[in-house]
TrEMBL record:
Alphabetical UniProt keywords: Nucleotidyltransferase, Transferase
InterPro entries the record matches: ThiF/MoeB/HesA, ThiF_fam2, ThiF_NAD_FAD-bd, Ubiquitin-activating_enz
Protein's organism: Caproicibacterium argilliputei
GO biological process, one term: cyclic threonylcarbamoyladenosine biosynthetic process
Encoding gene per record: thiF
Gene3D superfamilies named in the record: NAD(P)-binding Rossmann-like Domain (3.40.50.720)
GO MF annotation terms: nucleotidyltransferase activity; tRNA threonylcarbamoyladenosine dehydratase; ubiquitin-like modifier activating enzyme activity
Entry superkingdom: Bacteria
Domain THIF-type NAD/FAD binding fold: 12-156
Alphabetized SUPFAM superfamilies for the sequence: Activating enzymes of the ubiquitin-like proteins (SSF69572)
Protein's recorded name: Sulfur carrier protein ThiS adenylyltransferase ThiF
Amino acid sequence: MTLSPLRQGLSRCFTEEQLGRIRRTRVLIAGCGGLGSNMAQMLVRSGFQNLTLIDFDVVDNSNLNRQFFFPDQLGKAKTQALAENLLRLEPDLKLRLLPCRLTGAETAALAEKCDILAEAFDGPESKAAFVRAAAATGKPVVCAAGLAGYGNTDQIRVRKVGSRIFAVGDGYTSIENSPPLAPRVMVAAAKEADLVLQLTLEGSAHAG
């Protein structure tokens, strides 16, 4: 079997055992905006193949400053547009696309088919509802709060909340007071993706 260029390159970064673990790990990404779309591409670039992508929104011109979309995708469902871009990186992906709003009740059901749950919503209410429902599943949860504006990227840190919840951000900046801009958003997205990779390689994610 001929490996894709990405997989050939990844073989220089990881052992076969590590790549196998990465490929088996199923990640749910709730929200495909600045955090979610960039987290997804970083995970694919790290070898992850099995992603569930959830977002009810469509690509808008206000998204292009920080999200992994392009002008010719305006008006498309974010889940579909993101899938197109990810498949250009790695054609051999297993993507589950859910273009809908996520409720707390649905989170538990979706978590049964995933190993790590990643929150990437904009609004604080949606974030809190997802984290509460996700935490109740007992699966590792990666979330973010406080990444708007510019400057002070060193303040975007990882905090452990309880035994299985990991929060990225400075904990106080809000898009209600400062605009979401590419540098800080991508720093936070990178830290979320790095946490998913760390949890996977260290065995904290129990892939089926």
